[in-house]
Write a structure and sequence with these properties.
alpha/beta; Rossmann fold; Dihydrodipicolinate Reductase, domain 2; 14 strands; Gfo/Idh/MocA-like_OxRdtase_N; Gfo/Idh/MocA family oxidoreductase; GFO_IDH_MocA-like_dom
Length: about 350
């Protein structure tokens, strides 16, 4: 008789706005993943979070790292609080699953990836858009070459974030806390998904700006041209200044069909006249409420990470795949500032 495999022990650091879908996902995964502790500096908010989701509060981060039953740490803090947290986890031999972005700057992100590699621990980055049913279906078709060669790409992220209640909060839209604006905080999900389907971008030519809707340090509008390594060309527009906010859209013009991902839906218009639709109707957090989306995608990604650790493989989204997005964002911002083409 084969012994039942024990649950995957997880510790959680951070319990702010971004923690809600993770908590919902972890409750749905209780049969496979055990949250053995949650830690946050603000004790009152920690106790409230743990009571709401029925998780145990950890006495300290050090106590979680000392727990031999905790195999991995889920890091949900703002990006300016990550580097020391990850270094300590890696030093304790704990695997790390972390919210996007990796850090505020690419240099800091590279240090985090390097520290996990040096310690021999697995690093995964949350990019839940890859785990939508429509996204996975398109990824499979692209990997099999069913759509033929990719010739052109169009990415639109027409989101809305209000000044009051969002950008008025301390640190929002700042380099010190967030590391940037619409690209690194919002559009990074769509950029990661795009790169996972298209392969790398070779060069960009972009315009970036802050519109009159917002008073913030960083950009809320970016438009640009993309040159892909495989010879395809493309364009993007990303903003948080499009009231009331709409679903992001990624279109791949391929040799045999045009594939359009809109939110959680995929439409395939084949050159032979067929039309195919895959996916489900869902919100994506493009409006004033940034958390207005289901937790299913987080659940799938957390489950993939735990399975990857147990199986000794890399998760779907890794530190290295995330670095590719960081470098693309850097190139877009630099191009917008300099007004010229920039090689990624």
């Amino acid at each position: 008789m084969v012994a039942e495999q024990k649950t995957f022990g997880l510790g959680v650091v951070g319990a702010g706005m971004a923690a809600k879908p993770h908590a919902q996902a972890l409750n749905a995964l209780r049969d496979r993943i055990e949250v053995r502790g949650v830690w946050r500096r603000n004790r009152a908010e920690l106790d409230q979070f743990c009571a709401e989701y029925d998780f145990p509060a950890a006495p300290s981060y050090e106590a979680m790292l000392a727990d031999p039953a905790i195999e991995a740490i889920l890091v949900l803090t703002p990006p300016n609080a990550r580097e020391e947290i990850v270094a300590a986890a890696a030093g304790a031999g704990k695997h790390v699953l972390m919210e996007k972005p990796v850090e505020r700057t690419t240099a800091a992100a590279e240090r985090i990836v390097a520290s996990c590699e040096k310690a021999g621990v697995t690093l995964g980055i949350i990019f839940q858009h890859r785990f939508r049913a429509a996204s996975m279906a398109l990824a499979q078709k692209m990997a099999k070459g069913e759509l033929g060669a990719l010739h052109a790409v169009h990415l639109v992220v027409p989101w809305w974030r209000p000044q009051h209640g969002y950008y008025d909060k301390p640190g929002r839209g700042s380099f010190a806390q967030d590391g940037g604006g619409v690209l690194i905080t919002q559009a990074i999900h769509s950029l990661d998904l795009m790169l996972s389907l298209t392969g790398p971008v070779r060069a960009v030519t972009a315009l970036s700006a802050t519109t009159g809707f917002h008073q913030m340090e960083t950009e809320d509008f970016v438009a640009g041209g993309l040159e892909f390594a495989n010879g395809a060309v493309g364009g993007l527009m990303a903003t948080t200044a499009n009231f009331p906010g709409g679903a992001e859209s990624l279109t791949l013009n391929c040799e045999r069909a045009t594939a359009t991902l809109t939110g959680g839906n995929l439409t395939l218009n084949w050159f032979d006249g067929r039309t195919e639709t895959i996916g489900e109707a869902s919100n994506s957090g493009g409006g004033a409420d940034p958390m207005a989306f289901p937790f299913d995608w987080h659940m799938a990604q957390i489950a993939d990470f735990a399975e990857a650790v147990r199986q000794g493989r890399q998760p779907v989204s890794t530190g290295h795949t995330a670095l590719a997005v960081h470098r693309l964002i850097d190139a877009l911002i630099r191009s917008g500032q300099e007004g010229q083409r920039v090689v990624v």
